[in-house]
């Protein structure tokens, strides 16, 4: 039986940038869907970009300096099925 990741989105918001390009960030927590325990060192990749992060000791991650737009996130963790979250909006 494969284990399944769950993703809790905290924020996907924008902020004013000095270079005239609106930027934002995506933050969240990755947990085991069954036990609800946070997962450490999950790779979080923003598909079709060079952006990504890994979760910390509490399962949290933040990806900063993203241009405003819609994104797809991929979550990879050994022993778990990959999870793709679509329509994550940074505005």
Account of the 3D structure:
The protein is mainly beta. The chain has strands spanning 3-15, 23-32, 43-46, 52-54, 60-67, 69-76, 80-81, 83-90. It has a four-stranded mixed beta sheet with strand order 5-2-1-7, with no helix packed on it. The protein is elongated, with a radius of gyration of 13 Å. The model has no long low-confidence stretch (mean pLDDT 86).
Features:
4-stranded mixed β-sheet; 91 residues; elongated; 4-stranded antiparallel β-sheet; mainly beta; 0% helix; single chain
Task: Describe this structure in a few short sentences.
The chain is an all-beta fold and 91 residues long.
- Structural class designation: mainly beta
Low-confidence stretches: none
Largest sheet: 4 strands, mixed
The residue-averaged pLDDT reads: 86
Radius of gyration: 13 Å
> Going across the major beta sheet, what is the strand order?
5-2-1-7
Secondary structure topology:
Elements lengths: L2 E13 L7 E10 L10 E4 L5 E3 L5 E8 L1 E8 L3 E2 L1 E8 L1
Parallel strand pairs: 1-7
Antiparallel strand pairs: 1-2, 2-5, 3-4, 3-6, 6-8
């Amino acid at each position: 039986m494969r284990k399944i990741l769950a993703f809790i989105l905290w924020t996907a918001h924008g902020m004013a940038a000095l270079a005239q390009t609106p930027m934002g960030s995506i933050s969240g927590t990755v947990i085991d869907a069954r036990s609800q325990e946070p997962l450490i060192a999950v790779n979080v990749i923003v598909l079709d970009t060079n952006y990504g992060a890994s979760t910390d000791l509490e399962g949290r991650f933040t990806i900063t300096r993203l241009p405003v737009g819609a994104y797809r996130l991929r979550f990879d963790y050994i022993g778990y099925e990959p999870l793709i979250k679509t329509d994550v909006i940074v505005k």
